[in-house]
Amino acid sequence: MNSYYWQIIILTIIFVHLGINLWLEILNIKSLKTKIPPFLQDIFSAEKYKQSQSYTKELTILNLIEKIIITSLLIIAIKLNLFNYLNKISISISSNYLFQGTIFFFLLFICIELISFPFELIQNFYLENKYGFNKMSFKIFLQDKIKTYILSFLLGGILLITIFFIFKNFGKLAWLYAFLGVSIFMFIIQYLAPKIILPLFNKFIPISDSSLKQKIHNLAQKIGYKIQDIYIMDGSKRTTKANAFLTGFGKYKKIALFDNLVNTLSHQEIIAVLAHELAHFKLKHIFKQIILSLANLAIFLITLQLFLHQPNISKALGIEYPSIHANLLAFSLIFTPLSFILGIMENFLSRKFEKQADMFALKFVKSQDLISALKKLAQNNLSNLTPHPIYVFFFYSHPPLTKRIKYLQQNSSSI
Ligand SMILES: [Zn+2]
């Protein structure tokens, strides 16, 4: 197929993708209700409820504006051959294909950052401020940015160079070697994240509340795990939103609780949240999700192999000299519909797992504790309480709060 047809295909994908996103976001805004659902009246004040609705609306509008601007600039870049310009700069800097490719993506990253940076500022320092979430000073924001840039250049650079090298040198089985290389890389990152990467951004202090600590150990023992360490994380340095997460391999788990979570929820509620988290491990959800993401990676690399040696796909973006990196960029646009469908499947499975974890947790904790924990977290995070069902189908990794409360009430635990 010649580059003209490829360009039509790529532009169609970009337009349809934007169209679907706009339609879903508008659908979601329209489904916001001004009246508070009766079963939430005990925990949401009318004021808080109104806030959650207008926060959702304003955040959606901001994201939509960003999406429209980025898509328009992408089309302009294709039509005015701006990617060719970036490619020429990278060729003029280095004669080595590995560095040319890395520099090309590095320049592209800078361009994308320049466009999205103002939106990040507006979200953090206007919107999140207005609704009282943001606790982050401008200094922390900048420090975070710099650390993230260094990490992305380092890790992204290693990943790109590996992919370029393998696809240039390993012939028909390149996808398989790339699959092995990228999987090993991901596992190393997963392993290092709690040890090296997360402490770059937050302080982790061993829990001092001995009564809560004992309750967590008791719960873990009942479910069949040993908790190695329990940390309190200073999430409140950036946001008022609350969360908890578990890491670790095998029988030994580490738990990190946001300080906001400990300050907002009662002990029983925290235990209920952790029972849900441990259920994910017990039901092998984490393992299944890793298998699924490896399958996604394999699909991506096999299709990439099919497209990588087609000179006309990078010409469709206006790039004169075909190369692996230029084709990788074109391919990532062509892959959008498939990744969109894979995302829907992943979310569908994730919602199923969330329900299973909720049900499993009920064997160990009272349903009313889990319900009130979920309500408090939703109130605290100003979650959208009335998302449109179609929007949920496409984008939600968790069932909406109303649904979760309904099935938790129906399956009230006997504890
Ligand atoms: Zn979960």
From TrEMBL:
GO MF, any single term: metalloendopeptidase activity
Residue ranges constituting the Peptidase M48 domain according to the UniProt record: 208-410
Active site: 277, 358 (proton donor)
Record field: transmembrane: 6-24, 64-83, 103-127, 148-167, 173-193, 290-308, 328-349
Source superkingdom: Bacteria
CAAX prenyl protease 1 N-terminal domain location: 28-203
Cofactor binding comment, as recorded: Binds 1 zinc ion per subunit.
InterPro entries, alphabetized: CAXX_Prtase_1, Peptidase_M48, Peptidase_M48_N
Residues engaged in binding Zn(2+): 276, 280, 354
Tagged with keyword Metal-binding: yes
Cofactor names: Zn(2+)
Keywords: Hydrolase, Membrane, Metal-binding, Metalloprotease, Protease, Transmembrane, Transmembrane helix, Zinc
GO terms classed as biological process: CAAX-box protein processing
Keyword tRNA processing: no
Family assignment from sequence similarity: Belongs to the peptidase M48 family.
Cross-referenced PANTHER family: CAAX PRENYL PROTEASE 1
The protein's name: STE24 endopeptidase
Naturally occurring in which organism (per UniProt): Desulfonauticus submarinus
Upper taxonomic lineage: Bacteria, Pseudomonadati, Thermodesulfobacteriota, Desulfovibrionia, Desulfovibrionales
